């Protein structure tokens, strides 16, 4: 959070056109390790587009992306993931019939030692052990890791999906986690669980970008708020220096952009 | 079998967790029974059927000779059911199976007829199966609808088989009788082949990385893709395995009848589909057990055997199978929703992620 540290992720002068529509123009954005930045904006303000640029789903037509201070060009979500930027999608993308351990280790499954391992046999005990260890390192205890995801509640599923991405980020030291409406489908108590987990990820020095419509959530969690309006950044303030009314003003356009952001 | 065991294991842990949960007021035995019936119900059903038929169709039904007969019939259904199952598990219904079996057998038969060694004939047959599976898989992976693609493959392979065979069965293939009409210790040879296929298949699906990923692709291909895995590869693998099983089926039919007919038997596909559906494997993919598919094939063979022994016309067997199918489906649905209802307590009730999140105590949920 020290202002002079190298940002985990920095975008400068990002512009993106859909045909003649300017979805984003001249957006600067950065997030530091151990910081939660909320991206707010009305529908069509460019939130999702920004998220797509961050996650590598879209390529910006202008501007540069830097991860840990070095230039990157995200041609695909794979590139972003390789650079340490992990996205948690709204639809969670869990395999319902498989258990928590399988979901957490998918793509990096531990194999047995010896000839059985050469044949591709899984070390199921190690899968469960590693999943449990990773969940514990995040301070999360969900259901038993051998429980199929389809038997989990909505909150537990969200926790599993978050944990999966967080593990991939923490496994490589530092990283960036992109969250798209992480609590949209959750009830009150479940929302509190997920908030707690997001805070814990901040504590683990992960940089968190939170895209949401939910102002309450944003003020609960975020250290800094970035507001987009018609593809431009109109505000970039520390949460403690602002209030909900001003933020709503920026979102709707009723309030003039911050002085230093007027183009 | 393996997957069943891990099912029970996971259920046991679930139950332990539930027992600790404040919301749970007994009834765990109820859940255990329900889960047992859901996962093993088909085995119970088969045992009950055998017991009933043993008395009803006495004294001919419950004999070793009849058991061998039933096993032989079930083996053919089962091998094609395995072909269907591999497709369904990886997320696609493969309708080309009879065509694949026919073309593979006709090609292999032609090679054998020309005097090639047995191993070469078998290798050619299996290779044709794999090849057709890969073609299916690649086409589907390009975004074409699996049903349409595999129907197309079914008609094309049927036609190609006719061309190769010249419109008449390739006959006189006696080199394969050791895996066809021969008995070992009173057990027909195809039963051994099919048992081996199911054993390897079940272990593959539940214990290996490729198998687990194959099922995951059938369950949620997007999740697998986002995990950085080449999901398309596993779709093709599913079709290839389906093609291999179909080819083995064609091989067994050829070995038993000593000829390779160029006419695809769509009947076999339907009894295979019935066995798969009886096993409770949803056609949406990603879940199911190969061992239960085997039991499904056994049930079909058992019913038709008993009715034949009692001299009841065979079409009653198809009626009975159809009714059973709907009943099995309804049973599975009732059991699954009941288990889900009892196991998924009100959200967060059983396991708050952290005791310090005081606000999310179970009482609140």
**SSE pattern of chain A, N- to C-terminal:** EEEHEEHEHHHHEHEHEEH
Question: How much helical structure, as a percent, in the residues of chain B?
Answer: over 70%
Instruction: Give the termini distance of chain B in whole angstroms.
Output: 38 Å
CATH level-two architecture of chain B: Orthogonal Bundle
Largest sheet of chain B: 2 strands, antiparallel
The average pLDDT of chain A is 84
How many individual β-strands of chain A? 10
Spatial order of the strands forming the largest sheet of chain B: 1-4
Q: Show the largest interface.
A: A-B, 48 and 42 residues
The number of E-state strands of chain B comes to 4
Query: Roughly how many Å is the radius of gyration of chain A?
Result: 19 Å
| CATH top level class name of chain B | Mainly Alpha
Structure in a nutshell:
The complex is a heterodimer of chains A (about 260) and B (about 375). Chain A is an alpha/beta fold and about 260 residues long.
Structure description:
The complex is a heterodimer of chains A (263) and B (365). Chain A is of the alpha/beta class and 263 residues long. Chain A has helices spanning 47-55, 77-82, 100-105, 115-118, 124-137, 154-171, 188-203, 215-221, 244-252; strands at residues 9-18, 21-31, 36-41, 62-67, 70-72, 85-88, 176-180, 207-211, 224-229, 232-238. In chain A, the strands form two sheets. A six-stranded mixed β-sheet of chain A has the order 6-7-8-3-9-10, with helices on both faces. Chain A has a four-stranded antiparallel β-sheet with strand order 2-1-4-5, with helices on one face. In chain A, strand 4 (62-67) and strand 5 form a beta hairpin. The longest helix of chain A has 18 residues, at 154-171. Chain B has a two-stranded antiparallel sheet with strand order 1-4. In chain B, a hairpin with a 2-residue loop joins strand 2 (183-184) and strand 3 (187-188). Chain B has 13 helices and four strands. In chain B, helix 4 packs antiparallel against helix 5 and helix 5 runs antiparallel to helix 6. Chain B has 365 residues and is an all-alpha fold. Chain B has a single domain (33-342), classed as ABC transporter involved in vitamin B12 uptake, BtuC, CATH 1.10.3470. The A-B interface holds A 77-78, 81, 89, 91, 93-99, 102-103, 106-107, 109, 111, 119-122, 124, 139-144, 146-148, 150-156, 159, 187-190, 192-193, 196-197 and B 6, 9-10, 13-14, 16-17, 207-210, 212-213, 215-216, 219-220, 222-224, 226-229, 286-287, 340, 343-344, 347-348, 350-354, 356-357, 359-360, 364-365.
């Amino acid at each position: 959070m020290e202002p002079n540290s190298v940002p985990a992720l920095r975008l400068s002068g990002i512009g993106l056109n859909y045909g003649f529509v300017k979805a984003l123009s001249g957006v600067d954005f950065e997030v530091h390790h151990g910081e939660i930045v909320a991206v707010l904006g009305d529908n069509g303000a460019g939130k999702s587009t920004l998220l797509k640029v961050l996650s590598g789903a879209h390529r910006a037509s202008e501007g540069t992306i830097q991860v840990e201070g070095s230039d990157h060009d995200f041609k695909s979500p794979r590139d972003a993931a390789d650079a340490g930027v992990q996205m948690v999608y709204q639809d969670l993308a869990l395999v319902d019939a498989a258990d928590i351990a399988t979901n957490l280790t998918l793509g990096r499954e531990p194999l047995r030692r010896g000839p059985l391992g050469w044949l591709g046999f899984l070390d199921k005990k190690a899968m469960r052990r590693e999943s449990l260890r990773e969940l514990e390192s995040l301070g999360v205890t969900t259901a038993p890791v051998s429980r199929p995801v389809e038997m989990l509640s909505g909150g537990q599923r969200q926790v599993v999906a978050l944990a999966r991405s967080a593990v991939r980020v923490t496994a490589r030291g530092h990283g960036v986690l992109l969250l798209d409406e992480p609590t949209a489908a959750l009830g009150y108590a479940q929302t509190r669980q997920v908030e707690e987990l997001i805070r814990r990820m901040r504590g683990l020095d992960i940089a968190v970008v939170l895209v949401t419509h939910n102002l309450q959530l944003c003020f609960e969690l975020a250290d800094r708020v970035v507001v987009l309006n018609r593809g431009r950044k109109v505000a970039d303030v520390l949460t403690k220096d602002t209030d909900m009314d001003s933020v709503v003003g920026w979102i709707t356009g009723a309030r003039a952009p911050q002085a230093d952001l007027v183009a | 079998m393996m997957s069943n065991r891990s099912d029970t294991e996971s259920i046991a842990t679930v139950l332990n967790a539930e027992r600790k949960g404040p919301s749970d007021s007994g009834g765990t035995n109820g859940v255990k029974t329900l889960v047992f019936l859901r996962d093993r119900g088909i085995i119970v059903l088969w045992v009950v059927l055998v017991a009933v038929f043993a008395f009803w169709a006495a004294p001919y039904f419950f004999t070793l000779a009849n058991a061998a007969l039933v096993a032989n019939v079930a083996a053919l259904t089962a091998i094609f059911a395995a072909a269907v199952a591999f497709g369904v598990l990886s997320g696609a219904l493969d309708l080309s199976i009879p065509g694949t079996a026919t073309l593979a057998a006709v090609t292999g038969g032609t090679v054998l007829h020309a005097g090639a060694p047995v191993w070469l004939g078998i290798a050619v047959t299996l290779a044709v199966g794999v090849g057709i599976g890969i073609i299916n898989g690649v086409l589907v992976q390009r975004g074409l609808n699996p049903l349409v693609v595999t129907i197309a493959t079914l008609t094309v392979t049927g036609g190609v088989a006719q061309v190769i065979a010249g419109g008449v069965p390739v006959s006189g293939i006696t080199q394969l009788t050791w895996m066809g009409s021969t008995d070992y210790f009173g057990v027909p040879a195809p039963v051994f082949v099919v048992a081996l296929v199911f054993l390897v298949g079940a272990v593959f699906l539940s214990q290996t990385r490729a198998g687990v990923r194959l099922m995951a692709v059938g369950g949620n291909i997007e999740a697998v893709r986002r995990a950085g895995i080449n999901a398309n590869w596993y779709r093709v693998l599913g079709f290839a395995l389906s093609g291999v099983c179909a080819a083995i089926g064609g091989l067994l039919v050829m070995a038993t009848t000593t000829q390779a007919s160029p006419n695809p038997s769509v009947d076999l596909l339907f009894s295979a589909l019935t066995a798969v559906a009886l096993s409770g494997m949803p056609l949406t993919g990603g879940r199911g057990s190969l061992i239960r598919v085997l039991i499904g094939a056994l049930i079909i063979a058992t019913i038709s055997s008993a009715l034949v022994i009692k001299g009841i016309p065979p079409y009653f067997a198809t009626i009975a199978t159809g009714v059973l199918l709907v009943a099995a489906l309804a049973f599975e649905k009732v059991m699954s929703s009941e288990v889900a209802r009892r196991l998924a307590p009100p959200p967060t009730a059983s396991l708050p992620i952290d005791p310090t999140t005081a606000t999310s105590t179970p009482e609140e949920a």
